[in-house]
Write a structure and sequence with these properties.
alpha+beta; 4-stranded mixed β-sheet
Length: 101
């Protein structure tokens, strides 16, 4: 039984180390991308993220917000996809900034 416990502890330790590496990589990537986002949009994103359980932006795939998995009306999807102003659109359901894909 002692060897099994040791094996499991080692497995947990290795998994925790891998999580730490991935977390560090993602934090670095997030910071690198953050500097390319205009300050007003970044502030809007951070406010939405704080209110929405960590989801400040979500992909819009087809007519579905990937933040809440609910459909967006077709007229809004069309407006988002054809916008040339650079305006940020938000999901009426969850409030996440929609990023069309």
């Amino acid at each position: 039984m002692g060897r099994e416990v040791d094996r499991l502890r080692a497995a947990v330790s290795a998994a925790e180390a891998e999580i730490d590496v991935r977390t560090t990589e993602q934090s670095s990537e997030r910071e690198a991308r953050r500097v390319r986002v205009p300050e007003p949009l970044l502030g809007d994103y951070e406010r939405r993220r704080a209110r929405n359980e960590g989801v400040g932006a979500a992909l819009l795939i087809g007519d579905t917000c990937q933040g809440c998995r609910l459909s967006i009306p077709a007229t809004e999807v069309d407006e988002i996809r054809h916008d040339t102003t650079g305006r940020a659109f938000a999901c009426d359901n969850c409030g996440a900034i929609l990023v069309p894909r």
